[in-house]
Amino acid sequence: MQQNTDWWRGAIIYQVYPRSFFDSNNDGVGDLPGVTEKLPYIASLGVDGIWLSPFFKSPMKDFGYDVSDYRAVDPMFGHLDDFKELLEKAHQLGLKILIDQVLSHTSDQHVWFQESQQNKTNPKADWYVWANAKPDGSPPNNWLSLFGGSAWQWDSRRQQYYLHNFLASQPDLNFHNEAVQQQVLEEVKFWLDLGVDGFRLDTVNFYVHSKNLEDNPPLPAGAKKSLGVRPDNPYSFQRHVYDICQPENIDFIVRLRQLLDQYPGTTTVGEIGADDTLQVMADYTSGGNKLHMAYTFDLLNRQHDADYIRQVVCQLEAQIGDGWPCWALSNHDTVRSVTRWGEGHPSQAFAQVSLAMLMSMRGSVCLYQGEELGLPEADVPFELIQDPYGIPFWPEYKGRDGCRTPIPWDKNATNAGFSQEKTWLPMSEQHVDLAVSEQQVNPNSSYHFIRQFIKWRQQQPALRNGTIELFENTGEALVWWRRHPDQQLLVAVNLTADTLTIPLSINKIEQLAGHGFEGHYENGQLVLPAYQAFFGQLF
Question: Is 486 one of the catalytic residues?
């Protein structure tokens, strides 16, 4: 049977955060054997693949996004053989496996950095971004860390500063060094040779900095701040002209794509955080020689009215050309969408219609673990906060722990079936009644609804691979055509608590069934009850 090398176009990818998915050895932390044990559950949802958040060896200062060995599994998660077993069983179930690759920086415990910081003459002296202090001893420029404070950390041994866009324990690699680029590609090749199907690329536009280390200019008054960054974080006070999104970054992405093209059927999805995210997404996915797809924070922030969503989609479509988007409403870095977008709405109804909207847009889709259960954001008290990003900005920002709490598997078991021991983050009391065990026996649950919708959606060629054309003047309703040679599909979505009626003159429209929603078309009008959607095809 011929391999579908473009399987990723329109695919639904389920993100697993291994620390919180399932604990197989009862130490309070999820692990790779735990993921393997639950693979049949993921496959039952009808998704195409899994994105595994980092499981590499790490001191866990940023919970795996600080890698100390790119080729080793951290003992907390198991062993390399456990990953190989996971990969084999996933493939047997028809699931692709994408793994996180954090290439912009390493842990300060990585042997590369430990060698680099010894002196200015060792073989890896310029593998990281080192710079001299200004004459007054202050940092080389005004660049800021996303996690607060200067992006420069003084090293007394080298008598220089090193760059870190995140924690001080996450030094940035120097991608202006050809040896660094070549070694990073070797690390990626290691996993390709093991048989992975692709990579989610962390902060993919952060790899390269400006060699001249120019100061970033201030953000003009009234200008749009960087998405995904809180407005009270000083990072958002600058225009990020020189520290990220350099032209040479794309040159490396092209090299990376050349490597993946040697492994047909593999794919990349890049995380984009920038001042103009949609343009960067277009730049990074166009031409068929860079990223296969990318996602931004445009739907991972708080704004979500119909006009805003239309604006995001229309702006992207005007820019992206032959590029390909990937959309998400939730992930391990942001407040769960049921809380962030759905506050004040019935959580299950809102979860269902918002995910239906997501899976009806043009592009691929990332679902975050627990979204199919309609899980809201958990409330983690300050004394139990683990996230280093949350502590300095408390209480206005509580960090990312609220979306990372353990998945509830069994309402009646200890820690809702995640682990027999004290869990690394507390099991949310709000989540216990939404446990998998409860929802699987309830035919009206969010789990069954989303599962039914996914399986229906996967059979609609227009939703997987069609073009998109939005209706502009439909008020609070979101209405668009998805067109494919085999199907022309009209989609209408109501994210509000009101019944919406949209005058629409369409001949020969057939209302489709099997998706679970109750919107309908009659007498020249689309009628969308609260939290409902409509799907109809031309015949």
Answer: no
Q: According to the model, what pLDDT value does residue 2 have?
A: 62
What average pLDDT does the segment 298-310 reach? 96
202 is catalytic: yes
Given the residues 31, 271, 371, 372, select the one marked as catalytic: 271
**18: which DSSP letter?**
G
Side chain identity at residue 181, one-letter code: Q
Q: Which residues contact 3 (CB under 8 A, 6 or more apart)?
A: 264, 265
User: What CA–CA distance (Å, rounded) separates 305 from 303?
Assistant: 6
Phi, psi of 414 (to 5 degrees): -55, 135
pLDDT digit string (tens) for 458-473?
999 999 999 999 999 9
Note whether 530 and 499 are within 8 A (CB). yes
What is the 3-class SS of 258-309, one letter each residue?
HHHCCCCCCEEEEECCCCCHHHHHHHHHHHHCCCCEEECCCCCCCCCCHHHH
Given the residues 31, 48, 62, 202, select the one marked as catalytic. Answer: 202
DSSP state of 232: T
User: Could you tell me if 306 and 477 are in contact, meaning their C-beta atoms sit under 8 angstroms apart?
Assistant: yes
Residue type, 80: L
Nearest to 53 by CA among 74, 38, 37: 74
508 — pLDDT class (breaks 50, 70, 90) = confident
pLDDT tens digits, residue range 123-162? 999 999 999 999 999 999 999 999 989 999 999 999 999 9
